[in-house]
Amino acid sequence: MKRILLAALTASALSSPALAQRTPPPPPATVAPEVERLRDAALNDTVAWDIVEGLTTEVGQRLAGTEAEARARAWSVARLTALGFKNVRIEPYRMPVWERGAESAEILAPFPQKLTLAALGNSGATPAGGLTGEVAVFPSMAAFQSAPDDAIRGKIVYIGNAMPRTQDGSGYGAYGTARFTGPALAARRGAVAIVIRSIGTDHHRFPHTGTTNFPEGVKPIPAAALSVPDAEQLERIASRGQPVRMKLVLTPRMVGTRESGNVIAEVPGSDPSAGIVLVGGHLDSWDLGTGAIDDASGIAITAAAAKRIMDAGQPRRTIRVVWFGAEEVGGMGGEAYAKAHAGERHATASESDFGADRVWRFEVNLPATARPIADRLQTALAPLGITRGSGLGGDGTDIGPTIELGTAGIDLNQSGWDYFDTHHTPDDVLDRVDPAALRQNVAAWTAMLAVVANAPEAIGPVSPR
Asked: Which residues form the signal peptide (predicted)?
């Protein structure tokens, strides 16, 4: 009878999730106490804030290839040297430079009113006195692409979009095509100019600029982004069913080839054969704000974390901090770096270029020999509220060319809920940076570097993404 009762109870337990014996998860990987001490001390960091405040105050906006970006490089060398980094230097390269001019727009009919907009990088120019034309209004990129050419030829094209707010920023890739490729497609199809709804999640009357690209053989047409409220106003006017006429003035220009450059600093490691841990962000910014979140915060976070490792003693691997130039206008800095350093052995590459909000997730792309590193990172980062993702690490315009050479990647993903409210707008200024969130970033990067730079495992090449 006891055996029958025991069997019944066992069967009941196995059929009931609440009662069934569950296999416990494996114990978390252990990390050295020094990693925890460094991580926790970094929550009181002031270096990152000092860098962001100093760069945005003493230099300000830093459009690639301009005198302002050159001043930023000189400022960076002085600051990184003062912080104690070694081998601080500038690696220059040449690049074509685009500069903003006058920009304005107004609806002439049926309901005259002014609009707020900003030219897109690489935009063509209108005549000095402006360009007037009928507006062909398309609520989405798909509607524009499916329209016949005769609905576009000779018109000022408008493309709408409604970018959603997401934590991982995935809406940018899906809805950014209106800016990335819309102007070139409009030019090919005979449009005289194009305006788009800003690629952003805000409803402030701030336009979002950003680069667009006209392939060789496609003559650039005037291209600009309307602030979200102005874009919605244009759509409402068009919905009344009357032809819409707009006057557009955009006078940007290409000014030839000028110098940009990458600023490089190092924490020398004890084992040159173990490979370089590459970290950084981009020094240049757009010219509407002072580039506080994009990307003064990113270069500050990574440099502050590297300094903490340096001050704690010599790591096994060399940590190379790179403040890349000319990211915003096409990623020239990342390409120049990868070309100049292709013969060196990089263990990992990581960049911070998604604002200054808290890190919420990390992802890796490591070879099999280095898988235990990811387990230790999970343990080290969990107390900061950071979870392990299932994607591949190695995202970023600046590190992309180095990742393509087979370098392992580690990403520390910041929350993007609010990032595209400010991205590429005049509102990208210091008061958009939360000091507490900035310190959490420094703690996360400090923990990551403490684990990776001192890991005993070999970190060999991986298959390119």
From this structure: 1-20
* The CATH number, out of the four listed (3.40.50.300, 3.30.450.20, 3.40.630.10, 3.30.1060.10), of the domain defined by the range 33-98+256-453: 3.40.630.10
CATH label, 101-251, candidates 3.40.50.1110, 3.40.50.300, 3.50.30.30, 3.40.50.2000: 3.50.30.30
Q: Tell me if residue 34 is catalytic.
A: no
CB–CB of 104/114 below 8 Å?
Answer: yes
Cα–Cα dist 390/409, whole Å = 13
* Closest by Cα among 113, 328, 122, 355 to 225: 122
Say how many C-beta atoms besides its own lie within 10 A of residue 6's C-beta: 10
Distance from C-alpha of 158 to C-alpha of 141, rounded to nearest angstrom = 10
* HEC sequence for 431-445: HHCCHHHHHHHHHHH
* Active-site pick, 103, 266, 327, 328: 327
| Collapsed DSSP state (helix, strand, coil) of residue 409 | strand
Spatial separation of the C-alpha atoms in residues 209 and 250, rounded to whole Å: 13
In angstroms, the CA 377 to CA 370 distance is: 11
Give per-residue pLDDT as tens, 58-92.
Answer: 999 999 999 999 999 999 999 999 999 999 999 99
Please state, in angstroms and rounded to a whole number, the distance separating the CA atoms of residues 306 and 88: 14
Residue 286 near residue 240 (C-beta atoms within 8 A): no
Around Cβ 146, how many Cβ atoms within 10 Å?
10
Cut 0.90: pTM above it:
yes
Handedness of CA 32, 38, 41, 44 (dihedral sign): negative
Reported residue count of the chain is 465
What is d(CA 80, CA 41) in angstroms, rounded to the nearest whole number?
21
Q: Are 83 and 47 in contact (CB under 8 A)?
A: yes
